[in-house]
Amino acid sequence: MKLELRGITKSFGALVANDHIDLVVASGEIHGLLGENGAGKSTLMNVLYGLYEPTAGEILIDEKPVKFSGPADAMAAGIGMVHQHFMLVPVFTVAENVALGGESTKFAGILNLEDTRRKIREISAKFGFNVDPDALVEDLPVGVQQRVEIIKALVRNAKILILDEPTAVLTPQETDELMEIMGQLRAGGTSIVFISHKLREIKAISDTITVIRRGKVVGSAEPTAATTELASMMVGRSVNLTLNKADAQPGEVTFIVKNLSVMNDAGQRLLDDVSFSVATGEILAVAGVQGNGQTELTEAVLGLHKHIKGSITLHGEELVGKSVREVLDSGVGFVPEDRQDDGLVGEFSIAENLILDLYTKAPYSRAGTLNRAVIAKNATEKVAEFDVRTQSAQSTADTLSGGNQQKVVLARELARPLKLFIASQPTRGVDVGSIEFLHKRIVAERDGGTPIVIVSTELDEVLELADRIAVLFAGKLMGIVPGKSSRELLGLMMAGLNATDAQAQLDAPAATDKGERP
């Protein structure tokens, strides 16, 4: 099925989100749509999916103009969409989620899920999804939840599949699996629009690439194009994809984690006897596949877990047992891995979000009354300093793209003197231009003498930022290695080998011609 967009324009008042965009997706093609956060990629796809009505322009499928009054019309025309933030009901089963919107009933109005279960099994077997129709969605890993979203589209016979930032919440392993699935779908004749800001992924899977900047198509390229060329097209300027940072100059060890264990309500250890320390002026990156204790580690420092054993000290002050407010007041800056649920209040303005941890203090309030003028001035300065793309600092945070939301969180956390800075997945869902900016700000904070802990599942990011790297597996610390360690060593540690055994395996002689193994 061929898709064509001609002159698509979408305006929201004075804001032109899409400006006369032309796009052609051939049948059985993976078309990469590349652009910064806020460039208009998602808006364009929401127009295609019937969520927005275009201000101007037309959509053609197999050379025939079509108009959609809603997603149901788009689905009926053979278009399916997997949103960046999944549209699933956590307490429903896979089959119940897939059936939503197209439910069939049998006698007495009872929901009939047998046909849905059969289709899920057929699609799962065809593409190797390994999805149980009767599993509760809330019990599934994020990567499997995404497969459920793809199944939802395929059950409705989607011939054109829109994947909106599909790897933003995936681990590297899950990303690789998604790429394989996309290849299989393409081989079966499905056309795919792959929306992303990740250059490596776009180049790896796309047949052709269209680049959007500030609502306009600025060019197209083949996947063989240089990464620097694509990055420049995205942001409109040359981008240094390599972080140039001086060697760390560690000072006094001020942050110490000793024999830290975190248990759930059932007594199961989620973090098991972890010890490490961080000095002023250095970055310790915590690497590992998502779900191996990283979240529990950062939340334990912040005071969000009640079942804790061990010690966490900052400048000799014990943090275990303190409230979140007390930890923040001790000089800890914290960027959570989920900016939408834990980092921002979507209904609050950008200005208000920029003082969430400071609103009780001068100069932002006095005698319990907020100083609106000071808050507005602070917001204007931070929006400019961190290049937050917004019409106004008084706009609500939920109107921002993901990357701009992340800038607001970092701007807030770096706005005060810190004794420790912790950032979990600091650039997840952030475009290449913003990554360059945010990395520089983190390094600048390090160079100012702040001890920093970065938690990231992105090995590229870990290797760019880290002075030392700690690897977690199944809640245990596999070791701490230099920041310039090899991907191979880190990969073995992430798979469960301690640093010594991993290095020994890499150093072992190759097998002999007789097939002997060391």
From TrEMBL:
Protein's UniProt keywords contain Transport: yes
Gene Ontology cellular-component annotations: plasma membrane
Localization per Swiss-Prot or TrEMBL: Cell membrane
Pfam families xrefs: ABC_tran (PF00005)
Membrane-spanning residues: none
Signal peptide start and end residues: none
SUPFAM superfamilies named among the record's database cross-references: P-loop containing nucleoside triphosphate hydrolases (SSF52540)
Positions of the ABC transporter domain: 3-239, 255-499
Keyword Protein biosynthesis: no
Gene Ontology MF annotations: ATP binding; ATP hydrolysis activity
Membrane topology field: Peripheral membrane protein
Keywords on record: ATP-binding, Cell membrane, Membrane, Nucleotide-binding, Repeat, Translocase, Transport
Location, primary (coarse class): membrane
Name by which UniProt lists this protein: Heme ABC transporter ATP-binding protein
Organism: Arthrobacter alpinus
